[in-house]
Amino acid sequence: MNRAKARVLIAPVLVLAGAGFALLMPAQSAADESAPRPGLASSLQLDSQAANDLQRAIDAHDYVTAEKLLIAEIERDPHSPRAARLLNYAGTVYFANQDYLNAAVAWKKSEAIAPLDAKLRFSLAMAYIRLSRPDWARALLESLARENEADALYPYWLGRLDYDGHFYPAAIKHFQRAIELDPKLARAYDNLGLCYYYQNQNDLAVANFQKAIELESGLPHPSPWPYLNLGITQQFLNQLPASEKSIREALRLDPGFAKAHFQLGTVLEDKGEAEAALAELKEAARLDPAYPEPHMAMARIYHKIGREAAAKEEVKIYLRLHPHSTP
Questions:
Q1: For a Cys staple, 174 with which of 159, 240, 256, 296, CB 3.0–4.6 Å?
Q2: Residues 100-122 pLDDT 10s
Q3: Of residues 295, 310, 305, the one with CA closest to residue 16
Q4: Can you give the pTM of this predicted structure?
């Protein structure tokens, strides 16, 4: 590679050397309950052989075989009430197989025969979100919220849609409503903190992350996300020892949390601990090979410490994983 090309590849490292690159808040901040699980095949009025075959496929997570079995049954009488039940079940199988388009199609076909219950309508909204159709999801969630005024789930997800769309004041109102309905909903506090962070109301952001941490601490499997989000905010406020402590707590809860390893790497970089930072960034890249940001951060550090060949290699990996970036 000639020197001119090398300078082009290193340019992003210089542009992104500031802390702002490391402080992009994750878009998802809590575990979702949005994946419906296939029920027992014995509930579908199949003959014993078909029910046993379907249950074995579901238990083995052999969703393709399960889908084929269900399609064959549905095609026997595709417009009957029984077909609606089979389509509902098929939707959950497609969803479990991350085939969100066919999940949505199955549920819409079922809905043409008989109304979906609230649980499946919610699952359909989650499929729409994964299909990048938040407008369709919003219509369903708004309808569910009107019909179930005491359920915090629906304003919470309406808040998530507004958060993802960067409509932070609207998202704040939805999360506050969810908290009114369920004061123990930790992830609503966590997402409320994210909104305040982006509104530059950092004291409120920290208070809500801490409340989420307090509520999560009483759960069997606390989420690492509030600790990570708190650590990111503390890093932004240049509270580096506190930030490192928060992020290490996130990693104690989930040692395989690639985003937390990445963020800890950037904190250690800010503290001037280049080798320790590189170790964390390498771990983030190992845990999530499709994650581009650790490679750019490593390139930046390598450039700072004079390891230009390593820096150029990391920039190339970043650009391969993030092909729409401009050097």
A1: 159
A2: 999 999 999 999 999 999 999 99
A3: 295
A4: 0.86
